[in-house]
Amino acid sequence: MGSGNTSSSAARKARIEEMRRAEQARERRNRVLVIGGSVVAVAALVVGAVFVVKSQSGSDDSSASGSAKNASGHWVTGSDGVKTWEGDLSRNHTGSSVSYPMQPPVGGDHNPVWADCNGTVYTKPVKNENAVHSLEHGAVWVTYTDKAAKADVEALAAKVKKTPYTLMSPYEKQDAPIVLSAWGHQRTVTGASDPAVDQFFQTYVQGKQTPEPGASCTGGTMQ
């Protein structure tokens, strides 16, 4: 039984490491393309500015109009304690703030820029809209309130730092001291030593729920 779990864990780590290498290669290619396309972009901006001035008043794009869709649905709790959101989790990009029906949010419209989630530990709150984009990329988001034990916060931070496709930040609006979130899924845990922590990471870091598996978790914002 133990060897099977070890093999599964090793395979997941190898898969994540492969995704990380592919992401780094993609970022190198993107830098070359950005340099080559910068001249074209400047010209396009000049033309685009004229178009925006003419069309902005009639635009119905969510980021331009300032409206954003809310996720709709309800929680269903499984026998393993994981809550699954049953309902609509829209995936539109918006520059507006979004009023999510759950805290922390596990999906819905979000900012075009994700929060860095390459084992990133934030000491200040992360914007919901950026974190939700990270979840869309297959990240697990660890959040905690000031009621969480300092030892648990430090141990969870150490775990996050060595795990690609994860991020951690304080979050005072949640009901429990420590919450783990993935796209469409969420679980409270009693502390860093709770076995549910490892299980949640193994299941949802780049798990089957990921809308955009392998998408970047670096080069985001608020680092």
Topology:
Elements: H1 2-55, H2 62-65, E1 72-77, E2 83-88, E3 118-121, H3 128-136, E4 140-144, H4 150-161, E5 166-170, E6 178-182, E7 185-188, H5 195-204
Parallel strand pairs: 3-5, 4-5
Antiparallel strand pairs: 1-2, 2-7, 4-6, 6-7
Task: Give an overview of the whole structure.
This protein folds into two domains: 2-58; 64-204, Glutaredoxin, CATH 3.40.30. The longest helix is centred in the N-terminal third of the chain and has 54 residues, at 2-55. The protein has a seven-stranded mixed sheet. The relative contact order is 0.15. With 223 residues, it is an alpha/beta fold. It has five helices and seven strands; from the N terminus they run ααβββαβαβββα. It is 40% helix and 16% strand.
Described by strand count, sense and barrel closure, the largest sheet is: 7 strands, mixed
Low-confidence stretches: 32-67
CATH overall fold name of the largest domain: Glutaredoxin
How many β-strand stretches? 7
CATH classification class of the largest domain: Alpha Beta
| Spatial order of the strands forming the largest sheet | 1-2-7-6-4-5-3
DSSP strand content:
15-25%
Summarize the helix and strand pattern as letters: HHEEEHEHEEEH
CATH architecture of the largest domain: 3-Layer(aba) Sandwich
Count the domains.
2
N-to-C CA distance = 40 Å
Work out the radius of gyration. 19 Å
Keywords:
alpha/beta, 2 domains, 40% helix, 223 residues, 16% strand, membrane, seven-stranded mixed β-sheet, DUF3105, Glutaredoxin
Summarize the structure.
By secondary structure, the chain is an alpha/beta fold. The protein is 40% helix and 16% strand. A hairpin with a 2-residue loop joins strand 6 and strand 7.
